[in-house]
Amino acid sequence: MGLVQEPNDLRFQVNPQAKFDVRAAVLLVHAGQLLATVNSASGIALVPGGAVKFGETAAEAAAREIHEELKLNVVPQLVGIVESFWQQPERTYQQLIMVHRVTLTDSQKAGLVWQEGLEGEWLPFAKAARVLQPRSLAQFLTSGDAIRHLVDHHTE
């Protein structure tokens, strides 16, 4: 779930201080809860996903990432697009996040197997809305009829 460069990732170093990437994010929901990894130091929650690869659709990337991270075969539904901008001390980031959602069955939830080195927890939607990064992902937790487009500058 980190920013690791792999072959064919749509990640670009724009200049020494700026990076851009295209990401597929997947909101795995079950009974009013969201599956996420939570950083114990910062409290920030991230959802499964990763870089879209060259020649791959966002839906293919979302399904691949869920299989790699959780050994789960699903067909994620595109629910929105987030343009995400944030700063770190030495670098500025911009992401185009293709947001997908999957509502898991009880048996799918019970069968999740995390990739070695990853671990997640189920967060009630109210808590997820406070700790998700980017925060705008919380607006996609419940079903909607239309694909939505949001811009998130990571300001509170």
Walk me through this protein's architecture.
The protein is α+β, with helices and mostly antiparallel strands. Helices cover 16% and strands 40% of the residues. It contains three helices and nine strands, in the order βββββαββαβαβ. It has helices at residues 58-70, 106-110, 125-131, and strands at 11-15, 18-30, 33-38, 45-46, 49-51, 77-88, 91-103, 121-124, 148-152. Strands 1, 2, 3, 4, 5, 6, 7, 8 and 9 form a nine-stranded mixed sheet that branches. Strand 1 and strand 2 (18-30) form a beta hairpin. It is globular and about 45 Å long. It starts with 10 loop residues before the first strand and ends with a strand. 29% of the residues are buried. The mean pLDDT is 92.
Summary of the model, kept short:
This protein has helices at residues 58-70, 106-110, 125-131, and strands spanning 11-15, 18-30, 33-38, 45-46, 49-51, 77-88, 91-103, 121-124, 148-152. It has 156 residues and is of the alpha+beta class.
